[in-house]
Protein 1
Amino acid sequence: MSGTVTPERLWPQLEAWLAGDPSRPIFAVYHEGDWSGSDVLMVGDRYVDVRVCRSELAVREVLSAPREAGRGLVLLTSIDQLGADVLARLARPRVHRLHSSDALLPLFGVRAIDPALARQRWLIDALVDSAPRAGYESAGALQLDLARAWRALLVHRYGIDPDGGLGGLLAWAASPGTAFVEAEAAERKALTARLVGTMPGAEAVLAVLDAGDGDDVVALGLVMRVLLNAPDGAARVAARTRLEVRLKGWAFDAGSAAAWSLAAEATLDALPSHLQATVQHRADRLIEILQAESLVAASDHLTSGLRARMAAFGGTLAAWTAGKRSIAAVAADADRIAQHRLADSLPDAPHRLALALARWLDLDAASPPDLRAAALLHATDGSYADWARSTLRNGAGEPTFDAAVRKLVAKADARRESEEEHFAQTLASWSAHSTTDDALLGVEHILERVVGPLAVARPLLFIVMDGMGHRVANELLDDLSHAGWTELRRTAHSERALAVSVLPSVTAVSRTSLLTGSLRRGTMSDEQAAFPTHTALVSASAGGEPPRLFHKGAITDRHGGLTAELSAEVAGDRRVVGAVINAIDDHLARSEQLRTSWGARDILPLWWLLEAAREAGRIVVLASDHGHVLEHGSTLNRGSGDGGERWQRATGRSLETGEVVVQGTRVLVPEGACVLAWSEKVRYAVKKNGYHGGASAQEVLTPLLVLAPGLVDTPDGWSEAPYDPPAWWLGDPASDVVAPGTGVPDAPPAEPRPGEQMTLAPDGPPADVSATGWITELLASDVFAERRASAGRTPVPDERTIRILAALDAHGGQLLKDALARACGIPVMRLTGMLAALRQMLNIDGYQTLTVDPATGDVKLDRVLLAQQFGLSGP
């Protein structure tokens, strides 16, 4: 081995020989065999010729040839004894025998080699053969140790990053290069031993390479998680055995498999989405090859794992619907889906909606005593059930899940049908006198009692979403509460604003009544004429420019965005600007097969208007003239043929199933009475995506949202509203069991125990009394006082700190942010800032006593760690 000369071994020696600048830069090197290098080498700034001389005569011939002064020459010869006259012409009068260790010293810039390295001749040879032209990185050490030598070999010979961990090894294994593939068995064995000894999990990865499956090393790592976490049993044993055979006898090792799985999952997460899909697809195929389909639910990363969890959820949900499983079992399966990393990619989170709808069905149905109570029940409860059941009809593409959801939705449909019948009967009784007040507004009162007074305090944008019911408003509010908008409510009426349409609930009477401020039938022209002259709006304008209303073509520019005129008005000084958006009403006339969501960005004119209002600092009042019902297998009832989609004239016909008669001053038909459909199963017109004009709560009740751009000083008489969906919607079935609007009084607040304090504001929920003791101790601690003092100019008030900590503690230390906002009675946007400030106060030296997961929205409190950090008496 030592007699073999390669350019890599010759270069460092030549650099050392030429460093002395000999006057005769000619060297003889013992050489047998062929020379694979070039005839000319560049060493430093010198050219060095290389000549192979098979005999002494050949040596003499080369030496006798003319040469450029100072040009180097290397004679490669198998003659180890040259004549004295020849030796006299050499820079060093001898034939050199090159040794790898000699070449290694200058390559690393060291003077000696660690004995442990010296004993591994193959490693030295490999380092010399693999050396970069400029040598290895200098470390300043005088001796080359084994660890540094291995590191250099891994990087430069094999392309392995020693600092990349097992994840780096996975990336390398997918394309290991020819050095590994062509290495002799002894070298591969040594390399394997080194990697296994320094990198847990490397043995499994190298086994994949030996089996020729390097392209699948990440996919197999994902499969490994299944074989680790799946329940023990014959199926798992068989799948592991098949894997061992595939990897040519690699013995399954849990520790190595776990490390491999973690690295594979991290590698997958770092890949672009299209490459992730490719790897997941391959992993799913490997699951089939290993016949491990029954185990795949154990994976948090595989698409097949998500499908398996969806199927399991569907089975549990079907059993619950049949009365054979508990709601807790349904919740557990929904949580398993939520834990999968692909769960967020499921459109509309159907597992969460299905669980919420099941929780709603698990509660006792309510029978509100009057229209106001029925309206409040729909706004705060039934409309959320409508959101869930309408969205769940879209399915999720997993047969077992979809079959179970269809049964769930059918059950929810039946309950909502019963509720709508009760609402319609209540509406019929109420319509005879039609008593309205600040707690139950008519749409005709909104300008006078809401828009006008608010416009006195702040410039205002009034947006009418034609056809928007509470179901759509809930979806919009959920989106807007996370997009920097704060809902405001009248301080005297902290519950959701309730408004009722004119009857029948159609645009011609309800929208005209809304925009004119009086009960009347009309057209867009009537609305345009009346809006600028409305007494309350003119008064709010205080002598400035009169209110202005924009309809349809005046709202959006044909090239995109708002018209220049509308944009200028929103940005200008006009106190009241109004706009009518027909997106929802227009949608009802389209195909029922179109999937529609109602986030703010899904309704472009609305989103553009909101952004313009935010920029201008305007308060936004978002209202509607009526709602609608969606087409879900209705039946055409031709009735008298005199009426609309969901209403008929009352003369000359008897009531049928799903109908009710209403009469009174708010019934704007010539006879003052008409027949309204309350059942979703009834329509009087051609089939469309949806209808309006009937007596259901979905059509008659109109949402009214007051939105402020960000956290602002609220106008007098108005307060920030908490984010308050029903408890069952947010996943907290333990609270608010009594449905709102039923007239059942709240339980009196518990008296504080001796030594405990109750400092909550009257508008917020009481903290859990059992938790108040440790919270009191925390607030009184010196450490907390120091942290609070250093928290900046806006520390969280003690009252809010108590609310947040007590709510978390009452729920086992963990809540979704939306659920926490509801439990605390704090708007989501304000809660976000408070949690950031609280984390600054409570998290000391990097210890995370309070955490917020930005991906899932989970807020977690570690009371044990909190007690340790603040020196409290105990958790």
Protein 2
Amino acid sequence: MDELLRDFLTETGESLDRVDAELVRFEQDPNNVAILTNIFRLVHTIKGTCGFLGLSRLERLTHAAESLMGKFRDGMPVTGEAVSLILSTIDRIKGILDELEDKQEEPAGDDTDLIAQLAQMARQEAAASPPPVPEKISPAETAADLPLDAGGGETAVPGADKAADDATERPAAEAGDRLSSHSIRVSVDTLDRLMTTVSELVLTRNQLLEIVRRHEDSDFKVPLQRLSNVTAELQEGVMKTRMQPIGNAWQKLPRIVRDLCAELGKDIELQMHGAETELDRQVLELVRDPLTHLVRNCADHGIESPPARLAAGKSRSGTIRLSACHQGGHILIEISDDGRGLDIARIKAKAIETGLAGEAELAGKSDADIYNFIFAPGFSTAARVTSISGRGVGMDVVRNNIEQIGGTVELKSAAGAGTTFTIKIPLTLAIVSALIVETAGERFAIPQVSVLELVRAGGAGSAAEHRIERIKDTPVLRLRNRLLPLLYLREVFQLGDADRDSGFVVVIQVGNQVFGAVVDGVLHTEEIVIKPMSSKLRHITVFSGTTILGDGSVIMIVDPNGVGQTLGRAAQAQVESIELKQSEEAAVDEKVALLVFRAGSQRPKAVPLPLVTRLEEIDCRRIELSDGRHLVQYRGQLMPLVRIDADAALRSEGAQPILVFSDRGRSIGLVVDEIVDIVEDKLDIEVSGSRPGVLGYAVVKGATTEIVDVGHFLPQAFEDWFRHRGAAKTDGARRILLVDDSPFFRDMLVPLIKAAGYQVVAAGSGADALAAIKSGNAIDLVVTDIEMPDMDGFALARAMRSVPAAAGVPIIGLAAMVSDDTIERGRAAGFHDFVAKFDRPGLIAAIKEQSAEVTRAA
């Protein structure tokens, strides 16, 4: 193919994608001159290039579309019909470009029907529009518009377009000339070959490093280290050339959502956040179709019709939200809607109908497990087949495509509140860091992005800190008061039975699933090049590829997703159930980590250690006094310093010890005199505090200790601390379920509630809270933040009413601002009371009142 034609096809394809998205934006914001100018410039450039290359059919089409958009620029109202007509023209142009790429010549065809519609639309709208308000027009625009005759055609005025371009495009051209020395266009094939070459270089580097490891005194050690550094820099540079913003995969989504709205009769707003997040081009291409399918599903199945939304107390317009961000070596993508949520009853019925599960089996499954049936091949709950969905083809393909590139798809849904899909994919598929482990005399590579930590474990009778135990034949590891289900890679890979309950445990996370893989040894970490599996081995789901180590050995790369699937669902559920009961039974009298310090007096004071972000010693010269407040520059922002009482004075020289408390981007420093110790003890407050800032007094390691109420000091630093984060506090009756998505505030509020004489069970999300309620453990009162991701407080309250044992449990909602609208929504959802988050006395009073109601009802 001619190089000029190839460049034209590439640039025009990119421009048309931008025009698609910009037209949808312009339809929603018709007074935005910047958007219209950008669209006009793109179409004008395409038209000019078509004329230069002699592509007459494309030139006529683009000219007709440009003429109609010119009327918009003159003040003609923007209508949905006009935008639809231009989008149809863009689709026709794309079809012609596809044939042009295949045949390398412009296909013959007659577009007079579309051109006539564009011209008629321009005449009709212009006649119906009031005369445009005269505005200052540049000579270039005048020169560009003069060649148009009354019939919408173009007279033969030699050089008119060139004159317009010379007058209007010169600054951009000059900018382009300046930028031309900083950028070039490189073909994808060239980049792929370069990546392959770098991969081979990495393998060679690894082999040389292995040789040097065996010869410590080698003269090659220093130059090889330099070669290793250069290789790493080259690898990073090549990776950067392959990185593209994920927004490139989102360009067509606004147009798709717009067309779906017209077809389905719905009002949907598409919000996109994090479009600048970059990932490897190869991964981007593989994730493009799954993202499109999920957005279409949200629009078709998730968002209700306007009448249904209004009847449910929602706004007429629904929302689909896309967001992307980096998380370690992964990209995290969320696609969520505020629609009806998944119908669990219909999913159960369909699962029974298709033979996926029986009624007895479904009764023992959690809601999350039942939701996952939608990923089964051929599964659909659609009442009828449409051009959009209903055939049961798609969701299984979405999951398979994501998992094939080492990613995961998670699903959360709440009735009446919407559905969220969370996709986690690797940044790149070429070179990754891996942990090399050994089991049964064989070595394997585990991608390090899935590894949380390593633990050395002993058997049940050993003196090791961490011991492998068995619960009904299921091996588990008790790690920081949590039961972790285990599997032995020796058995998973069918290399023999595990002959001992000891070894190294590789803690792996796949989505929300965390488990331990027991191996015989951990060797080292290494940058590995991923090689594809042989076609004869691709059915083995526990492996994702192969690699060559530095010593020349070929080993298998473990697929954490496949390994996680071998962990029986029953075993996982059994461990989770036991863990939940044990945590609830120990919630009242378990030992907690406490930071003991002194401030203002010799009496020891303490706060729960999980609340403390850092212990710092600040140079006193860095402390500034402004408007009566002490401040210090800390990690790129100003941090207020707060004293526990008037006796806790700041030092004037040397280093000032402080306790740093942080949450959601804000930090405060609590001034102390000295750090005494970190201890583990029961937090049993025996005497309530008599002054603000003190929860009460407890015996900690034999000494009477003040338990500090951190929540009292937060508003002294930031008056809107609680309103800022949309945080929640929770309290309860005899046994209270506290629900808040922030670990900081859960750790802060549990001691406060215990000090008021209640037992506390904490949950980090609405879904976790619902699971605790369904587990059968008695809950007397629920206090929940109303602003939480996925399942908020309103959705939790509605879901509780469908659980017979929890239908009468009082619910207290915590809100940053308690408005009439919030109260009305709360009453409809089933809330008994609302308390402002910063009203601590009001919260305790509400808990006592609801507790008394529970007692009277009993």
Protein 3
Amino acid sequence: MKLTRFAVSLICLLCFNTLAHSQILNSENLANVKVESISDEEIKGYYQRASTSGLTEDQVYQILASKGMPQGEIDKLKRRLESVNLNSTTPELPSKETVVRSTARKANADAGAIPMEVFRKDSVIFGSELFSAASSVFEPNLRIATPSGYILGPDDEVVIHVFGFSEQTYNLTVNAEGNIYIPNVGPLYVNGLSIDEALAKVKAKLAGSIYKAISSGQTKISLDLGKIRSIRVTVIGEARRPGTYTVSSLTTLFNLLYLCGGPSDIGSYRNIELIRAGHVKRTVDIYDFLTKGDTKDNVLLEELDVVRIPYYQTRVTLSGRVKREGKYELKTDETLNKVLEYAGGFMDDAYKASVTVTQLTDREKKIVDIPTASFASYKPQSSDIITVGKILNRYANRVNISGAILRPGDYEIEDGMTLQSLISKAGGLREDAYLQRGVISRLNEDMSPASVSFDIREVIKGSEVIKLKKEDFVSIGSIGEMKDRYVVSIEGQVHKPGEIVWRENLSLKDVIFLAGGFSENANTVNIEVSRRIKDATVGEAQFKQAEVIIADLKTGLSGKDKDIILQPFDMISVRSLPGYVQQRSVFVNGEVMSAGKYTLTSNTEKITDLVKRFGGFTSGADSSSITLKRVIANGLSAQDKKELFQRLMSISDDSLNNNSALKTEINKNYDVISIDLQEAMKNPAGTANLVLEDGDYFSVSRYSSLVRIAGEVYYPTLIPHHNGSSMKYYLQQSGGYTENARKNSALVIYPDGQVKTISKFLFFKSYPSILPRSEIFVPTKNKNNRSRLSTGEWVAISSVFATLGTLLITAFKK
């Protein structure tokens, strides 16, 4: 990314001293550096040299800060890059995911930056996850204090601080011959010395020359590592990317393993060799780090070190109920216990008595069962597949007891355990236990089911001893469960009709009380109790099916006189009083003098009576659009009817007519009856003067001269009424029929609800007249139900045409 490119270019300027003509950036102290003084041309000109750096972005900023650059200036560097247009052909510089690696057999300071690959590894190999993705675990840490064991070499910079009686700082670079040159003192050979050894040698040199006060302790000296050099190291063997790498001198063995991608799928994680000066300096076992966090093998690398990754010798696969399945590499003396330790041990539900090992012989596979006692001695062979099973989903020592017991459930079976001891262990029997019989469900030796019955009374007394076996299921019944569900029912004029659970000594008055008492219209002197007959003489032609008991409770529910003790399944009926009649009402809405709810005064009240009660019609009423809506007999309650009419009263007729969906929803609960009010007023005793029913909705619409055209016309609309205009006129005004129109089925719906269709005789059509507020509706063709004329129908039509032709000829002859 741009930020990394710019930052690395700057650090190269600082670390490798390649900008001799840039006085600002060559300074050892960057405390006074101003970012705005660095030109764009300088950035572009030295970018190519910066491409050889192997430092990451974070390392760059750490070194800039160590040189004294203020954080504010570092932030300016980041923002400055936004205005720098680097050429796209400039080599890509390393970021956190890139490393500097030389090409094969070529290691020098001009090596190009090669992006770090994200290697695809066998993810089941234990330890492979450390090298399968970018991670900061194995990145060199440049912010650590100078290691005391660090070995100096060419291109390292040492910083000598003299303080106390004298004050001086020297920034000295180890040259190719291994010397540092101290001003006014001369050269001093430090190549191959550790930091501590170099400090002692510098201290002795300065004490014997220009700083005599060092011997007396008045002047003191410290030596730190400044700029760090690059070293060349080589990875050989079964690495993901073997080769020679140019890295920082602070790079450790683990850093290098990460850079090369770690061991390949056939490489060893347990016997990695660090070869120095032709001898094996150290053998590294990565498992020590993975399992213990031990970093003793993470040593600093030196120039020309060689890291060799050999082939693995023994690798086994562990699967099944362990905490971490995978492939594990073993050393020659490690056993199965060690494999399980690497895997984190068994899962909680693992079968631990033994494991199954699949081995490879020279010719075929074989299975070996390893018991727990042999885990510490069995040494797995290479390619062994070790499988850990799961425990069985069964119990080794369980019995179960259920039913009328105080503490039902599973229990441990003990040696010689009997049914009597299990009942005692479960807290004993409940009071409602059925004592005559119990059942044990048992499995035979061949797992076939078996049943053992017993008399609970004999078991409790100890006269019947039944020994239990594992997985026995004991069932003890309850008296209540073995009987019918005893109920009595009550219906009619009580507040809460329904079923009530029967209990001993339950009386009629008790049931009426539990049902909420009598309603207002209850007939309390003629209550009927219907009782089952258990011994009916069904063999006779006529036999009694039920016993009916009549009760008189006009004195109420108090006291015990006239009460009846009920039996299971008795049915109680409380009927209405003979002369009790609830009010019936109708609703009036629209253009009337007084709209609202009207209670019917008699069972024969008619429309003309209702008109007199609401006082007639307003001046805007349309006498031809009077309708009566009657509730369909669909079981609606009085409350449902009330809610329906309240909704109707809140919607005007015009709104209802303009919303076909709402109109359909409202009218689905009603039958619409056409009213000829003039005929009813003229002849009150005639059939036009209908008798009103409970829930009738009497509606009178406001006068309107509009005619509605709907259905399969091109422009459904409302058109003003024109006296004498035919139906064809209104259809033409709405654009005419569409292609899907059923022309011959067009109809007119009049304001009072009557419907008329087009009538035909031979070739002649008669259209119905159109009144104000009428609706012309053209239905849609039903394409799925088209049927061809039968032969008989064609013959009949032909006969009609023949007769018509004969009549016409006769008429012309005359």
Protein 4
Amino acid sequence: MLSRSQKRVVVGAAILVVVVLFVLPAINVNRYRMSVARSLSNALGREVTVQSIEIQTFPQPGLALKGVVVADDPNISAEPMLRADEVLATLHVSSLWRGRLEISTLKLAYPSLNLVRSYDGRWNVESLFERARQTPTAPTAQPRPESRRRFPYIETDGARINLKLGNEKKVFALGEADLGLWLASENEWRLRLEARPIRTDANLSDTGTLKMEGSLRRAERLSQTPISLKFWWENAQLGQTTTLVYGRDRGWRGSIRASATVQGTPESLKVNADARLEDFRRYDITSEDSVGARARCEAELSLTSHKIQNLYCQSPLGGGMLQARGNYEWHTQKRGAFTFWAENVPTQFVLNVVRHMKKNIPQDVSASGMISASMAVDDLNGVRTWAGNGEMSSVKVQSTVLREPLVIAANRWRLIGPGTEHFLAAAKLKRAPQPSLPQPNATAFGFEPVAIPMGGTSPATVTGWFTRERFVTELKGEAEIERLFQLARLAGLPTSSTDLAGTAKGRLILSGSWQGFALPTYAGEADLQRVTAKLNGVASPLRLQTAHFTVDTNSLALTKAVGSFADIPSILDFSVNWPRNCAASDLAGDHCAATFDIKADQLNLDRINSLLNPKAQKQPWYAALAKSVMGQNRSTLPEIYASGKIAVGKVVIKGVTATRFSSALSITPTGFHLSNISSEVLGGRYSGDVTAEFGSAPPVYESKGKFSNVAFGSISSVMNDTWASGKADASYSGKATGWNAEELASSAAGRATFQWHEGELKHINLDGAGNPLRFKLFAGSMELKSGILTISESKLQTRTGIYQVSGTASLGRALEVKLARDGAPGYSVSGTLERPRVSRLKVPQTEAVLR
């Protein structure tokens, strides 16, 4: 049995449950919406609107406000300072018994907060801080109510904090922000923040987490408010961070960590910051080692006088140190003065950084030496005056791509360009950068000529300048070409697969941008001497006695080149021009093909065949075996698209000599085409075209052309048998396949028409008296197939009459020919061309039939 007092407790509890479950939810509190909004407006000093209000009973009594909008200071921004779809205000239960509602927590779900800085430097939250400072409130955790209201615990869930400067809303914001603010003691507010930096015009996911915690204390004036804040930025990826800052991924990778502390008052704040960058590299570079940097800074900051004073930063760099000092103010005028200096930074550290920034630099490259530099800048309202200089000790660079170590003499540099005019008189350089170089349009580091041994009779010199955006360098003097290629590979620049040796004397300007990953541009010229080039697919090296080389943005050119191929006694005089920066899809076009003009005193086709034909080149037995195993029996030409003219004084083709040979020649990776061929051959002239197709194995040759006034006496002398005389004209078209003369001869096929004038066949006589066969005209057509030449539709006009000629002749000189004449005996010619056998054919008998 329950006692009377226990029964009263149970009844009271039951009544309370009924009220909470059924009575309170039934009360329409939305009619108090305007009163609640007015109370909030009075508390914040800003106009507040609320769409609706509901009572919450569990888990803690409170009010659920929807559509809350807090206006901003109209003198700063016309856009609302805060928007929140839902705001939950929970109540202190104990305040209910005293008849005064007192908010315990104020939770904003997914609000949007605008932080605005006016053009005169005021922030829209300053008045809120000032109002909170002046309003007497009890600590948030005060257990018992008193006359003062307790400061509520304010928190946000998934907030977005936007930044505005004047009327311009910036793209930078904080997303997924969880903010907490409470009054920890009588005069101390505590706050915490955890958010993700975002950019409103980009989809970013790895910008890291920004955290903040600290306290603010009451003071007589807001400018004297004691502040103690700590910041952390963790797990930020460099690629996403560059997108956050610049609006695009700059292509760098790495992780960023940073922290900072701020202590003091707005009039005088002490700032200490640490930052670390780890695993720095370009996005497409992988390396066994990692490179990074860390920095520590301290400064004095005054928000009231708008000054940064006694800024000091230091960053250890591989045993050396990079330091900076400066001051900056931005009140009535913007003025800053900064100095930077690096002391004894190892060249190896700089090289490691460059190796993670520039692709294809050898992993094993090492360097000795130290770098030191200093720089000062004075800024007044955006007008900057610069001064600075530096020096590098003698450096020795080693790598497997270098035949010998590269030794760079000690050198100095200084700042040049706009803004450095006042300091030129104090410069200690022996020589300024060469005036032939393009001058920088921004402040740049220019360095004096540096002597670099390049294998020439005297060291070459390098000079140039570099800015934050780009660089320009010039190499001038004499150098071994092989050494130049080694340095290009050391710098990660693309080089030709051709083996080159020789010397070059001239100048080369290399320029480019640090930003992005475009290859540098080249410009320059050089005289080449005693150059040997081993070309892919060519059996013997090309040896140039002299040549002049030029390069610019659009093309490479080799002019006045004189040389020859080894083992081929023919002097070549030629020029070649290669277009640059052609897309792969444009290579086949005429505007992207190389052009050339070649002249030679003589050429032997057999020697050219041994030079270019892979089947005719001598190879070790294992090379042929490897190609067979790997299925590489098919030969391909180098990736060359070229066209031009060729002229040769004398061309020898299997004992036949052609003089004054000229032709247009086009070359592709699958073959070549000789067009408009003109030459004097066999006492007459030849004109025609020849096409070779190497896209299949064996190669296919097609030709068509015309012989004019060819002397058979010349043909007979080539055949070592004076079997014929006279002059002939002929037109032909034909096709052949094969790697050598035997294969070509056995596969040759074609048709020809001919006219042989005033001729004589000295081994053939038809009268039995041993007189050679003489004729005025022998004309007709013939067809070559499977090594057999078939004569058809041909007429032989002799002194005694006209014969119809038909039959065959083999390439082995075997004859089976018939000469027929109406009403007269015909003849059969068999045997060989050297020893023909002539026999008379009977005249067919004519039978008359009477009917």
